[in-house]
C-alpha cells in the first residue's frame, strides 16, 4: 500500500490502526508453498493472526489450519478451512474443548501426553466416534537458532513415553503419526534443514521402537520473518533440494508418510503495518527525547508475551515527514499508565511532531491478539484489510467484562 492510501486509512478509521495488505499474503504464501515439496501440506497457525479475512487468504493460497483453542477453531471455520483438514494442537486441552472440536469435525488432534490421549479417547467414545491423533514429540535436539519450543519442556512426549503410550492406546483413538515442532524464527535454510532432519530422526526413533506405521509426519516449521522492524526473512534457496533429499527415504515401518509443515508468521507478517499517531513529544533538559504515541503494548505487545518488556528494535517510519526533517533518536512510549509501556528505547525517526502519523512495519503476525489488549481497558486497535485499493472490511477485537456463569446477571 502506498503512503497516500495509509494516510487515507488512518483518516477513515482513526489510529491506532492495523492495515493488512492481502497482496502481500498471497505473495508470501506462494513463496513458502513453492519452497516445500508439492506433496507436502502446509498448515497455517492461527495463533499468528486469527482474523478470518487474513486467514482466508492463506487458505486460498493452498494451506490448511492449525489451531489451539476453541476461538481459533471458530476463526478457522469462518475463514473457510475445511474442518477435516484442521490440526488441533496445544498442551492442556480440556474435555470440553476436545468435545467441541470433535463435534465441529476437526480431523486430527496433536496429543501431548498419555493423559491427553486418555481424555481424547474418553471424549470420542462418549460421542460414539473415533478420533485421529498425532503424537507430539519432544525434540531430542534443539534448533540452531530462534525461539525454541523445546526450552520450556512443556510440550509433547519424551520418546520413551511415546513408545509406552503406543502400547496402551485408548480404543477410540487412532494414532496417524507424529508431530514435532522445534521452534520459531529459525534463520537460514541450513538451520531449517538441520531442524527438520533432527525432527525426522526423533520420529523415526519413536516409530521404529513402537512399531508405529506413520501415515502422517508433521515436521513443524520455524520459517522466519522480522517482527516490528524493517527487513525481510530471507529467501529459501536450497530448501526445496535439501528437503527432497531429506524426505527421499524414511527409516520408519511401512511406506513413506505424508509430510506436513506449519507456519504462522511467514505468510502474513509482511502484510501488516501498525499506524500510530504522535500524541506528545517531550525533550528533557539533558536533550533526551521521548515520543508518546497512541499505540502501547496493549496494541503491539507480541514481545511482551514472549517475556520481553523492552523492544529496542521497533522501527518507525514517519509518514508525515517529507524528507525535510532531520533524523533524531528517541524513546517511543505508548499511552498506558506504566513505565513498562515502551515500544522502543532508541528509535531513529525523522523528527516527530504532534499529530504525525508513524508506521511500524512487519506486524501482520502477533499483532493485536498477541498484545495486552485488556490492560487499561482501552479499545483495541481497528484492523482494516485491503486488497489493492479496496478495503475488504474492518474489525476490532472485543474486550471488556461480561457476566460469567453461574451469575448470568450483571451485578446491579
Ligand atoms: C506457534 C506455533 C507455530 C507458528 O510459529 P511461527 O513462528 O509463527 O511460524 C507453528 N506450530 C506450532 C505448534 C506452534 O506452537
Provide an overview of this structure.
α5 packs across α6, α7 (159-166) packs parallel to α8 and α8 packs parallel to α9. It contains eleven helices and 19 strands. The chain is an alpha/beta fold. The chain is globular and about 70 Å long. The mean pLDDT is 93. The structure holds pyridoxal-5'-phosphate. Pyridoxal-5'-phosphate is lined by residues 45, 47-48, 66, 89, 181, 184, 221, 223, 262-266, 365.
Give the mean pLDDT: 93
Distance between the termini: 48 Å
What percentage of residues falls in helices of 4 or more residues? 25-40%
Q: What is the ordering of alpha helices and beta strands?
A: HEHEHEHEHEHEEHEEHEHEHEEHEEEEEE
Bound molecules: pyridoxal-5'-phosphate
Largest sheet: 9 strands, mixed
Number of H/I helices: 11
Low-confidence stretches: none
Shape: globular
Q: Tally of extended strands?
A: 19
Question: What fraction strand?
Answer: 15-25%
Structural category: alpha/beta
Radius of gyration: 23 Å
Amino acid at each position: 500500500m502506498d503512503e497516500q492510501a495509509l494516510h487515507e486509512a488512518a483518516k477513515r478509521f482513526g489510529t491506532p490502526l492495523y492495515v493488512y495488505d492481502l497482496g502481500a499474503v498471497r505473495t508470501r504464501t506462494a513463496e513458502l508453498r513453492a519452497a516445500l515439496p508439492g506433496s507436502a501440506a502446509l498448515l497455517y497457525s492461527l495463533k499468528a493472526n486469527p482474523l478470518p479475512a487474513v486467514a482466508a487468504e492463506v487458505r486460498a493460497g493452498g494451506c490448511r489450519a492449525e489451531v489451539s483453542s476453541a476461538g481459533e477453531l471458530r476463526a478457522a471455520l469462518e475463514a473457510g478451512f475445511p474442518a477435516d483438514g484442521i490440526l488441533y494442537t496445544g498442551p492442556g486441552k480440556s474435555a470440553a474443548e476436545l468435545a467441541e472440536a470433535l463435534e465441529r469435525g476437526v480431523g486430527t488432534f496433536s496429543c501431548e501426553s498419555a493423559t491427553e490421549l486418555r481424555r481424547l479417547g474418553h471424549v470420542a467414545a462418549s460421542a460414539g466416534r473415533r478420533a485421529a491423533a498425532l503424537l507430539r514429540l519432544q525434540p531430542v535436539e534443539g534448533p540452531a537458532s530462534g525461539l525454541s519450543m523445546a526450552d520450556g519442556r512443556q510440550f509433547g512426549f519424551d520418546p520413551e513415553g511415546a513408545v509406552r503410550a503406543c502400547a496402551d492406546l485408548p480404543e477410540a483413538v487412532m494414532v496417524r503419526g507424529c508431530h514435532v515442532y522445534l521452534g520459531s524464527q529459525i534463520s537460514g535454510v541450513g538451520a531449517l534443514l538441520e531442524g527438520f532432519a533432527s525432527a525426522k530422526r526423533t520420529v523415526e526413533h519413536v516409530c521404529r521402537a513402537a512399531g508405529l506405521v506413520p501415515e502422517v509426519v508433521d515436521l513443524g516449521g520455524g520459517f522466519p520473518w522480522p517482527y516490528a522492524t524493517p527487513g525481510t526473512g530471507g529467501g529459501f534457496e536450497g530448501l526445496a533440494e535439501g528437503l527432497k533429499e531429506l524426505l527421499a527415504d524414511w527409516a520408519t515401518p511401512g511406506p513413506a508418510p505424508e509430510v506436513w509443515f506449519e507456519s504462522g508468521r511467514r505468510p502474513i507478517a509482511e502484510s501488516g503495518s501498525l499506524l500510530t499517531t504522535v500524541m506528545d513529544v517531550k525533550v528533557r533538559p539533558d536533550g533526551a527525547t521521548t515520543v508518546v504515541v497512541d499505540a502501547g503494548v496493549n496494541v503491539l505487545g507480541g514481545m511482551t508475551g514472549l517475556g520481553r518488556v523492552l523492544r529496542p528494535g521497533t522501527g518507525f517510519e514517519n509518514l508525515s515527514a517529507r524528507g525535510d526533517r532531520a533524523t533524531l533518536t528517541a524513546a517511543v512510549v505508548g499511552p498506558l499508565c506504566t513505565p513498562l509501556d515502551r515500544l522502543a528505547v532508541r528509535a531513529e525517526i525523522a523528527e516527530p511532531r504532534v499529530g504525525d502519523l508513524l508506521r511500524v512495519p512487519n506486524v501482520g503476525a502477533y499483532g493485536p491478539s498477541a498484545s495486552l489488549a485488556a490492560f487499561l481497558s482501552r479499545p483495541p486497535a481497528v484492523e482494516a484489510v485491503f486488497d489493492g485499493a479496496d478495503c475488504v472490511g474492518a474489525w476490532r477485537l472485543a474486550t471488556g467484562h461480561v457476566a460469567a456463569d453461574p451469575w448470568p446477571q450483571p451485578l446491579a
